[in-house]
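Reply to dn_fold:

You asked what the input looked like. This is it:
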Amino acid sequence: MEKTINININGSRFLIEEYAFYKLSNYIDEIKSYFTNSTAHREIIAEIENRIAVILQEKLNEQKQIITGEDISNVIFIIGEPEQIATAKGGDKKNRKFTHESIKYKKLYRDVDNKVIGGVCSGISDYFNIDPLSIRILFAVIFFIFGSGLLLYLILWLIIPKADTEEKKREMHACTC
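and this is what came back:
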């Protein structure tokens, strides 16, 4: 049995395992220590905390309500180690925009975590950063008006690979901002 803690990050409430809380707390403290002398200290920390909240919110669903240590490790992987962030913000290296260096661009995958049938619509919505409901409605309209929506969906289901590994999920959710 793991002890859990209620936390608030950038206005979002999360239930987090105790170990994960300490890991996240240490990570944020390290980041703060890198930017203490910066004039934009508060803005940088707020931006990073906002990104952390967005990533953690994506981890939760009806079946999963608690943030784990693995989730925090994933956040650190996506955002980067504090020294990497400091280097990117300082301008010594190319600005990474809070994505891991190995993720160069977003890739299209079927999102099996948020699927209704096969994950095609949720994968397309992740790729274009739009609501999955709008993609589902579009497929329904194509089906009823043109009669080819089901065939198109089945073809895309066969063509688009599914995001079944953590690496593919990170590529699917990569920040293109």
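The beta strands are 4-9, 12-17, 66-67.
Hope that clears it up.
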